[in-house]
Write a structure and sequence with these properties.
The complex is a heterodimer of chains A (about 280) and B (about 450). Chain A is an all-alpha fold and about 280 residues long. Chain A has helices at about 1-25, 30-60, 70-95, 100-115, 135-165, 175-180, 180-215, 225-245, 250-265. Helix content of chain A is about 75%, strand content about 0%. The mean pLDDT of chain A is about 85. Classes of the chains: A mainly alpha (about 280), B alpha+beta (about 450).
């Protein structure tokens, strides 16, 4: 199918964008940064087109559902939200150095979607419980949240690298010098985590509204639900520590990394546990 | 005494306690996803020693989310939230009521040089420009004019101070909703075979049944499949009855529950009913063929008047050899009973001499007739989840409060800004300062915006 062909090209485009961001960080020339931004944008547009084609195709096949229904589609959408959110941030903040940490995540997710065993990239019909308008809003909000947490994670890693390199910038490599200031990164980390927290909350709420209509209970302690709660609690602790106790910098970076580990477990690890949300069934 | 009281108070009002409780809840939730819960725990019982199992069970490890631990943690968190909100609210209220004075030397202390500029203008004109700008951006502002200087100030986002209380309140409302649900709510299920009527449901916790104040009949159940065999849609046509009078008929679909007298019905599952009906064909050697729809107990006179036959049993899957019907033929010579298998050809192919070994499996045992089982009639039952939860609207309100509160906490912030214009010979010195409790970066951006607007304005109007 044409949409999966485009999507496998997008995987390489994201990889190229990552390489260009890396060149910029090593060579310190803004030409590479501009090229990287445009490459990522081309990838995002191509991916959007592929998703729309996939959506239309599902109608032609008589199923008619948004491309958010199985594991493959969720991975693709995850990568899409990450790049979308990143480019939005880059444009707003006029700073390209986060890209070298964010784009590889998007690339790896796309690559995983196309090569991991047992992932079905066909358009599949929806089982009755998934035939709901809440599917789209639930998946949309959850993945926007995941994407924001991914950006916070990338910033956390950047922060730790920068603070490990020491304060004497004149001695460090171009790479370190091009990273935003620690103050800026800390602030962005907080903003991304806060954004992710709002979206995760919305995702949990839309999910429980949907569960209320589909299963008759707004909360049933399904492992995915429980893990989303754990993730929510971790970020709740992180935000409390910042807003009330004034945690900054390294501690926030570590919290962003721990939180992202919870996000990953909520998204992937839960498939190892029996669940109503299992993509693998 | 008072000291002791304040000790407890400060313990419960600390954010440290909140963080510890949140972490503990997260930890218990994590354990609950690793240790099998409720029904799933039975399987574990076989693998660990009975002593350990009973200890773990007493500690309610197998029903963590409904255990005393979870209950206590939520209770502590609720007390923590109430106390810490009460503790901080007076200060918030003071901050909310406090209007900053235009003249505030404190705010300009250690002001970075980037927050000031000089321009050739007079105090009057610069102050007017500043007032216009503040009015545009903050609507309200305060001002005091001196002989050689003017001070202005404005404030924005004061309501964001209350965001955190909205979030905390939402959690208390959530707990209230959950308690209402668990005290007054009912969670049950019922399976209804097509054509049948029920007036009680089985409860999820425990094996009790709950009589309903009405009865429900399943008139019809329809399931459609995709080509792959996965179900596409399923729905039940239900009729609610009160004292045998039909009150309301509905179509119940997945994702579209139906409410009747406070009970909410959900289309949850479906299945085939064992012991339904079968289609049986009867062939007389060289003669006519009769096809009939039969159930257990069905009696029929043989076309040649040799006797009668009766259907004794209808089996979905007899001894793993597929659908079968047990038939008795009664004639003056006596009674003959035998089984009629639907897949008799397959069975014969697998073991060719089965009919000699087990004459009861011979569908032609009573000559000159041969019976054929043409198929089983699929009869469905519909699986319904039946709930009554008066706490749901309360929980929904809590969710709404939570989202609104979070938006306020995370996306708005209180800040005050001051602009001071001083005469310096034939120039004026403009200084902009600000204060924010939460968002220093946002404030800094705002100050820079004010500075550049003001500078542009004054330089242009020269």
């Amino acid at each position: 199918m044409i949409n999966t062909t485009i999507l496998s090209w997008v995987t390489f485009i994201f990889f190229a964008a990552f390489v260009f961001y890396l060149f910029r960080m090593i060579l310190g020339r803004e030409f590479w940064g501009k090229l990287a931004t445009w490459t990522a944008l081309v990838g995002l547009v191509a991916q959007s087109i592929a998703l729309i084609i996939r959506w239309i195709t599902s109608y032609d096949l008589g199923m008619g559902h948004a491309p958010l229904s199985n594991f493959y589609e969720s991975l693709i959408f995850f990568a899409w939200t990450i790049v979308f959110l990143y480019l939005l941030m880059e444009w707003r903040l006029k700073n390209r150095s986060i890209g070298v940490f964010v784009l590889p995540v998007a690339f790896l997710i796309m690559a995983y979607a196309s090569i991991a065993p047992g992932i079905n990239n066909r358009i599949e019909p929806l089982i009755p419980a998934l035939q709901s308008n809440w599917l789209t809003s639930h998946v949309l909000t959850c993945f926007l949240g995941y994407a924001a947490f991914t950006v916070a994670f990338a910033l956390g890693i950047m922060f730790l690298i920068k603070s490990a390199a020491g304060t004497d910038l004149s001695k460090s490599a171009v790479f370190i010098r091009l990273l935003p200031s620690e103050y800026q990164m800390d602030d962005l980390m907080y903003s991304s985590a806060a954004l992710g927290f709002i979206f995760l909350t919305l995702g949990i709420v839309t999910g429980s509204v949907w569960a209320h209509y589909a299963w008759g209970s707004y909360w049933s302690w399904d492992p995915k639900e429980t893990w989303s709660l754990i993730t929510w609690l971790v970020y709740a602790v992180m935000l409390h520590m910042r807003l009330v106790r004034g945690w900054r910098g390294k501690r926030m970076a570590i919290m962003a990394i721990v939180g992202f580990a919870c996000v990953l477990f909520t998204y992937l690890g839960v498939n190892l546990l029996p669940s109503l949300h299992s993509y693998m069934s | 005494m008072t000291k002791n009281k304040s000790g407890i108070w400060s313990f419960f009002s600390s954010v440290k306690l909140a963080v510890v409780l949140l972490s503990l809840i997260a930890f218990f939730a994590l354990i609950g996803t690793l240790v099998p819960q409720r029904e799933a725990a039975v399987e574990l019982a076989g693998r660990i020693s009975p002593g350990l199992y009973s200890i773990l069970q007493k500690m309610q490890i197998f029903d963590l989310y409904h255990s005393i631990w979870f209950f206590l943690l939520s209770g502590f968190l609720a007390v923590n939230l109430i106390i810490c909100s009460l503790d901080r609210f007076p200060m918030t209220w003071r901050r909310f009521r406090m209007r900053p004075a235009p003249q505030n030397d404190d705010a300009f202390k250690d002001l970075p040089a980037t927050n000031t500029f000089q321009v050739r203008s007079d105090v009057q004109r610069a102050a007017e420009a500043a007032a216009l700008l503040l009015k545009k951006k903050y609507r309200k502002f305060a001002r005091t004019d001196g002989p050689d200087s003017t001070c202005l100030c404005a404030q924005k986002g004061r309501f964001s101070l209350f965001g955190v209380y909205i979030v905390h309140l939402s959690f208390l409302v959530l707990i209230a909703g959950v308690i209402i649900g668990s005290v007054f709510g009912v969670e049950g299920y019922v399976n209804i075979t097509e054509g049948e009527t029920v007036s009680a449901i089985s409860l999820r916790n425990g094996s009790q049944t709950l009589p309903l104040p009405f009865s429900v009949r399943c008139d019809k159940f329809v399931v459609k499949f995709y080509e792959s065999g996965a179900p596409k849609t399923f729905q039940s046509d239900l009729t609610f009855l009160k004292s045998d009078k039909a009150i309301q008929s509905v179509k119940l679909r997945v994702n579209h529950p139906v409410v009747f007298e406070e009970f909410r019905f959900y289309q949850a599952s479906y299945g085939a009913v064992p012991g339904g009906r079968a289609t049986l064909a009867l062939l007389r050697d060289g003669g006519r063929r009769d096809v009939m729809n039969v159930g257990a107990g069905y009696t029929f006179e043989l076309p040649g008047k040799e006797g009668t036959f009766q259907v004794l049993r209808v089996e979905e899957n007899l001894m793993k050899m597929g659908p079968a019907v047990k038939v008795a033929v009664r004639s003056p010579k006596g009674e003959t009973t035998f089984w009629v298998f639907q897949q008799i050809d397959k069975i014969k192919a697998l073991s060719p001499d089965i009919l000699d070994q087990v004459p009861m499996f011979n569908p032609g045992l009573f000559s000159p007739y041969t019976f054929t089982l043409m198929g089983m009639e699929e009869k469905y039952y519909t699986g319904l989840q039946v709930n009554r939860d008066p706490g749901t609207p309360v929980v929904a309100a809590a969710a709404l409060l939570l989202i609104c509160g979070l938006m306020v906490v995370l996306f708005s912030y209180t800040r005050s800004v001051w602009i001071r214009v001083d005469r310096k010979k034939d120039k004026v010195l403009v200084r902009v300062a600000g204060r924010s409790y939460k968002n220093q970066a946002g404030l800094e951006k705002e100050i820079q915006y004010l500075l550049s607007e003001l500078k542009d304005n004054l330089e242009k109007s020269k």
